[in-house]
Amino acid sequence: MSLVLAVLLAYAYSPADSSWSLVTLAGIPERAVLFAELAAREGGRAVVDLGGLLELSGQFDQAVTVYEVALNSAEDPLLEEWLACRITGSGPLDTLLILSTRVTNNSPATARNIRIRIPRPVPHHPYQSIEEIGGAFEGGEAEMNAFVPVLGPGATAVLPLLLHVRQEPYTYRPLSGEDITVFGGVGLEGLADMIRSIEVPLPEDGPGPCLELALALRDSAACRGLRLMVTGGLVRAKGDTLLFHAWNCVQNGSLPIDVSLFHADSMRGIAHCPTDMIPLWDLEATDGHEVSAFYSQPDVDLTVSMTAEFADPVTTAALLDLFPLFFLRGR
Predict the structure, then answer these.
(1) Rounded to a whole number, what is the largest CA-CA distance in the chain?
(2) If you compute the radius of gyration of the chain from its CA atoms, what whole number of angstroms results?
């Protein structure tokens, strides 16, 4: 082994131990990236690891190039999907989103005077801006409301909200392990210990436990004097499918902490903001719910749900025609 390689290994980094486990929470030494570049020349998994380190050190353009090289030779479908998400998440996002809230009356009685509540989308600076183009919802700073005056038996009301989202890939790294301004008296290592103490259930079919994990970390951090927000948003999956997800952000800021992601990919679980994760709301304003229905008829049974999709120009124009009273042109 050469002297240079021995020195690099002294930084406790190896290609098999990059973004898949906890190398260091504080930062990414330049020598670790150099070692990854050296190892990547041999191909294989080391190329993937180099891309991860470049992404986490804020070199997103270079990371995309490395991920594309790895994708061309990947044979594992799961690795291919992961690489595609990393390529997507390392590029800028400028898109229209349609959030569609559906309210269905499952009862034989007619439902009246239904109020639907969702949290108001908020921009996450410095890497994201959100513009409300319009829709069926209006309201104050923390929440938005829509009203359905009448909903017959078996009927469904669809309430849209159209958003223009601009987002750049961003990272807060490196962070100091003794950073008391961002993480209060807890510190970065103390925060990591809190996350590790939260048990993550095994994956099951259906919605994951991300909201429960975020609430658990919020409560655990509060006991240590650190105030965390519960943030809701979207994750871009295979084929640009949008899935709802929840994580934490440091209060009065946009720095993310994701318990579920931390356990799978510890370096990416704290202080990293790729564009395949799109934060939208502070879920504290609506008790952790993306959508809620309020009505006073005990004999009525309603179900509510929300979907999200990217809007193409044709769909957007059709919505503007269908809901002329809902969309606030020029806002």
Answers:
(1) 80
(2) 22
- Residue 275, pLDDT > 70, answer yes
Cα distance between residue 18 and residue 328, in whole Å = 48
Give burial (CB, 10 Å; 0-12/13-18/19+) of 222: exposed
281-318 pLDDT, tens digit each: 999 888 888 999 999 999 999 999 999 999 876 666 66
DSSP state of 164: E
Measured CA distances, 258 to 174, 178, 213, 270 (Å): 17, 20, 9, 6
Cβ atoms 195, 259 nearer than 8 A = yes
Strands (E), the chain: 93-105, 111-119, 128-135, 138-139, 143-151, 156-167, 170-171, 228-236, 242-250, 256-257, 272-273, 277-282, 292-294, 302-310
Check if the beta carbon of residue 116 is closer than 8 Å to that of residue 290. no
Q: In what order do the strands lie in the sheet with 156-167?
A: 128-135, 156-167, 93-105, 302-310
pLDDT of residue 253: 77
Q: For all residues of the chain together, what is the average pLDDT?
A: 81
Q: Using an 8 Å Cβ cutoff, are 231 and 249 in contact?
A: yes
- Output the DSSP codes for 288-320: T-S-EEE---TT--EEEEEEEEEPPHHHHHHHH
CA distance 111 to 154: 10
Cis peptide preceding 126, ω within 30 of 0: yes
CB 90 within 8 A of CB 67: yes
Query: CA 237, 242, 247: angle at the middle one, nearest 5?
Result: 85
**What is the Cα–Cα distance from 120 to 166, expressed in whole angstroms?**
17
- At residue 266, does pLDDT exceed 90? no
Token pair of 329 as six digits: 């042109």
**DSSP designation for 270:** B
